[in-house]
């Protein structure tokens, strides 16, 4: 992790006090945050999802990669410091080590979600609720990417929607 943080050491830093919001769900900041030190809690729709204190953890990635608002809230659970990436897509295109690191983080997250779904499926085996879990797994596996609207273009008229 030290090698990754050394790679981005020249990026601007920002500090957050305990309890301060780093990213608010639904906001579109266009920023990527890389944890240097501290700890955060991640919530979605007010439900605690996880916590993280691993230096090098990246937040704001889904929003940056898909061009959508932040899908979860990130709050500092103790004083925390981050490197801030202001143009995430451009930065990731130019920084293979950081891009690979993000790919590994996303793969770990996907693996954890998949394992969770398998555990749920095992728990509900033989029950009527299994159909819902199967449907969720099928949706995740076969989900088509959303049409990406660049942040600046989102205010332009879309003939497919406006007609």
Question: How is the secondary structure organized here?
Answer:
Layout: H1 2-7, E1 13-16, E2 21-23, E3 32-44, E4 47-52, E5 58-59, H2 61-66, E6 73-85, H3 88-94, H4 96-123, H5 130-142, H6 159-162
Antiparallel strand pairs: 1-6, 2-6, 3-4, 3-5, 3-6
Number of strands: 6
Q: What's the overall geometry?
A: globular
What's the architecture of the largest domain, going by CATH?
Answer: Sandwich
Order of helices and strands: HEEEEEHEHHHH
Proportion of strand residues: 25-35%
How many domains make up the coordinates?
2
| Average pLDDT, all residues | 83
Helix share bin = 25-40%
Please tally the helical runs, counting DSSP H or I stretches of 4 or more residues.
6
Question: Can you tell me the CATH topology of the largest domain?
Answer: Jelly Rolls
Largest sheet: 6 strands, antiparallel
Helix/strand/pairing category: alpha+beta
Low-pLDDT runs of 5+ residues are 151-163
What is the name of the CATH superfamily of the largest domain? Answer: Jelly Rolls
Please give the alpha-carbon distance between the first and last residues. 50 Å
